[in-house]
Every structure is written in C-alpha cells, then in structure tokens.
Amino acid sequence: MTGDEDRATSGRRRRPLSVALHATRDVIVDLSELNFADSSVIVDLACLAQRLRAQGRTLWLAGAQPQIRSLIETVGLHRLPAVRLDGPLPVHP
Q1: pLDDT tens digits for 7-59?
Q2: Are 53 and 82 in contact (CB under 8 A)?
Q3: Residue 82 and residue 93: Cα distance in Å, rounded?
Q4: Which of 41, 33, 30 is nearest to 71 (CA)?
Q5: What is the number of other CB atoms lying within 10 angstroms of the CB of residue 15?
Q6: What do you get for the CA distance between the two ends of the chain, in Å?
Q7: How far apart are CA 44 and CA 52, in angstroms?
C-alpha cells in the first residue's frame, strides 16, 4: 500500500486483497510507503487476516510508518491472532 488509503480508494485495494486470499503462504503487506490510512483500511486488513487465519496463514504488516503503526495499535489490529506487526518476517524459499 502506498500514499493515502481511505474509503475513496477502497476499489484499488479490492483486487490485491482478493488475490491475497488465494495465497498458499503467509501474506506480507508492505506499509512502508503508506502515509495515511482511515478505518476502512483497518477493516479490510482485519477481514483479510480473519480469512487467512481460517486457512492457517498469517498476515504480516511490514514497515509501518509511526502514524500508521499508531493507528494499528490504537484499534488493536495487531492483537488479532493472525496478524503480526513488524518483527522478523518469514523467509519464503
């Protein structure tokens, strides 16, 4: 995700999130270039995490800038069972 993401940009997130649902491995979302996100982004990521968890997968949120990390922690997205915020990322062969 890059730039500003909100309800108005949800359409451009739809396809990548749909593709992620069919992943055969954990999913890594690079947040390093995301400058702004509203609650719609958090809801999308939470829904993705829930569906990945049902498949035995994890959603890794990588490189979140301080304001995005704060949002994630404020709403508790990082506490969902299938979500990992930063930390060591899985290495895929």
Answers
A1: 999 999 999 999 999 999 999 999 999 999 999 999 999 999 999 999 999 99
A2: yes
A3: 21
A4: 41
A5: 9
A6: 24
A7: 12
